[in-house]
Amino acid sequence: MHTPERPPQPQPPPEGHDSGNPPDRRSFLARASSMGMIAGLGASYGTAGLYAARYLYPSKPRDKAWMFVARIADVAVGGSLRYTTPGGEKVALARQGSAGTVEDFVALSSTCPHLGCQVHWESQNQRFFCPCHNGAFDKSGKGISGPPGDAGQSLPRYPLRVEGGLLYIEVPTESLEVADASAPREGHDPCLDGGAPL
Hints:
Elements: H1 25-56, E1 64-71, E2 80-84, E3 90-95, E4 105-109, E5 120-122, E6 127-130, E7 135-137, E8 143-145, H2 146-151, E9 160-163, E10 166-172
Antiparallel strand pairs: 1-10, 2-3, 3-4, 5-6, 6-7, 7-8, 9-10
């Protein structure tokens, strides 16, 4: 009896050997998605590393300059005013005394550290108040009630100076425009247009 001979079966290519055929759709998508995930992880870790390096090793210390805020006579005792630094930071200034000295004034960031709402000075309660969650800060900016008080949060303080009946605040200069201060510009009055560097 004679058994019919079977035709020889092709052997699968060895592992890692390209048989010359294009990959099927499934293997192509698997490889593409794996490479996409690896690229995404690399980019996210790289970005996180960049921010960590900028935080740990700042390029330079922040330079500061004194900016005009207001005339002392224009701020009533118990009154307050808002000030925006050239860098866009919002500041709440309050007058708490009548002597006309720097000790009469306080300048604090008006951005609540809890959720970023704007705080304002309440002279009748002698506190800075955040209406978002009833957060309150004492005259020095320390949290005394609400979420900021519970978390021990405070409002950052800005240095002030009084000179010749004028109130000045010290702010970072990173975004200040460099200008020729030797001669005033035509129509430029630092007391009217929001301040000028000293």
